[in-house]
Amino acid sequence: MKYRRFGRTEYDISVISCGGMRYQQSWKDKDPVTDECQANLEACIRRALDVGINHIETARGYGTSEFQLGKILPLLPRDEVYIQTKVAPEENPEKFRENFELSMSLLNLDHVDIFSFHGVNTPQHLEWAYKCYDVYAKQWLKEGRIRDIGFSTHGDLRVINKALQSGIFDHVNLHWYYINQENWPAIEEAKKQDAGVFIISPNDKGGLLYKPSEKLLELTAPLHPMVFNGLFCMSRPDVHTLSCGAAKPEDFDLHIEMTELMDRSDELLPPILKRLEESLVLTLGEEWVRSWDQQLPYWDQTPGEVNIPIILRLRNLTLAFDMIEYGKMRYNLLGNGDHWFPGEKSGKLSDVDITSAIAQSPHAAQIPSALEEAHAMLQGEEKKRLQED
User: Fold this and answer.
1) Which residue in 93, 142, 190, 358 has the fewest CB atoms around it within 10 Å?
2) Sequence spans of domains, the chain
3) What is the Cα–Cα distance from 9 to 16, expressed in whole angstroms?
4) How far apart are alpha carbons 340 and 29 in whole angstroms?
5) Do the beta carbons of residue 85 and residue 117 sit within 8 Å?
6) Any idea what the Cα angle at residue 327 is, between residues 325 and 333, rounded to 5°?
């Protein structure tokens, strides 16, 4: 295992973190837990510790995860493991306090090392986080009940950078990986603030990499796509740790392979990146690949709230890398993902006029047909977030 300084927390954190949203019994926190599921979760934690992982992450919103972790955490060497939980900010700080106290009780801890406001996805969530920070979280820092404070986000750069620039957050959990590098400016801002950077969902939202297309397997050979993506992320020193949401102990294996190859990133990554780029250009054209995402509006700036950047990115991945299953999974969340995955599909372009919204794009003439093509390829059964299934 390798370790990196987690920003101004000064924690030497393992470059792989044990994420807690895949091995729990249920997304409903009051569901009973079987002995079999509890044994599997504890085996995952033991395996994580055995390979040198020292960061275990969960959240109040992860169903039975906190309760189940609370059965094993008191048995661990507390001074050798960083525990993180996340609680959503609330308009009413008292409700936020109640949820935090419940988390602490379930985890059987007197303090958490890394605490995050969960799902700071909109300006409203950020305002609620500021309020909850002032009323309660700031005092918990003084008391040592939380040792640092940050936020997790599925939001866009407008929200992420504003939060980081406030200077009150010691770390950020965000999405950034090969297939979606949009949040790189936020990582640069985190570096300015000396904030820790934790990359979340690199294998699921990062491309369903645990069940990749044959074409993607060929393009990233000799590396598995999960190993390639991990190396891509960790080749940047401003990224500090990468989540592994393990469902079983062996799910750590490919991540361990990645850590063993980190010193060879400069050798291994360039030929793979070249092949991926060539596939994009061959399929989509050099001009499109170079500038497709320039001057695109946010979803809330577009008639009908069509999420143009997301849809065009999914089309690119589907056409160039045969990532059809991933494309369908993400596309059919649009309209159902609320603030976690906002915006609408492109199936009703005949009902809205997006001409003015895309007027500044160098591909304004091509975008409507590209959106229609994406809808034809990806439209399917509506999806819900895991927490809502």
Assistant:
1) 142
2) 3-266, 285-388
3) 17
4) 20
5) no
6) 105
pLDDT tens for 44-88 read 999 999 999 999 999 999 999 999 999 999 999 988 999 999 999
Q: What angle do CA 100, 204, 280 make, to 5 degrees?
A: 140
The DSSP call for residue 306 is: B
Distance CA 144, CA 383 (A): 41
pTM beyond 0.70: the answer is: yes
SS3 86: strand
Alpha helices in 108-224 (DSSP H): 123-132, 138-143, 157-165, 184-193, 214-220
pLDDT value at position 30? 83
Residue 10 burial by Cβ neighbours in a 10 Å radius (0-12, 13-18, 19+): exposed
pLDDT at position 61, please? 92
| Cα 174 to Cα 375: distance, rounded to the nearest angstrom | 27
Cis peptide before 222 (omega within 30 of 0): yes
Local structure of 343: helix, strand or coil: coil
What confidence tens digit (pLDDT) does each residue in 138-155 have?
999 999 999 999 999 999
Gap between the Cα atoms of 54 and 255, Å rounded: 14
The answer to whether 84 and 117 have CB atoms below 8 angstroms apart is no
Q: Give the CA count within 13 Å in the CB-facing half-sphere of 307.
A: 22
| Rounded distance between C-alpha atoms, residue 282 and residue 43, angstroms | 45
| 3-266 homologous superfamily | NADP-dependent oxidoreductase domain (3.20.20.100)
* Residue 294, both tokens: 């320039």
CA-to-CA separations, 340 to 24, 28, 149, 152, in angstroms, rounded:
21, 19, 21, 11
d(Cα 154, Cα 122) in Å, to the nearest integer? 9
- Strand pairing of 114-117 and 149-152? parallel
**In Å, how far are 154, 219, 313, 377, 386 from 367, measured between CA atoms?**
25, 27, 12, 15, 31
Place of tokens 């297309």: 213
Alpha-carbon distances of 98 from 47, 92, 325, 345, rounded to whole Å = 33, 10, 39, 37
Torsion sign over Cα 85, 86, 91, 95:
negative
CB distance 49 to 66 below 8 Å: no
Cα R_g (the chain), whole angstroms? 21
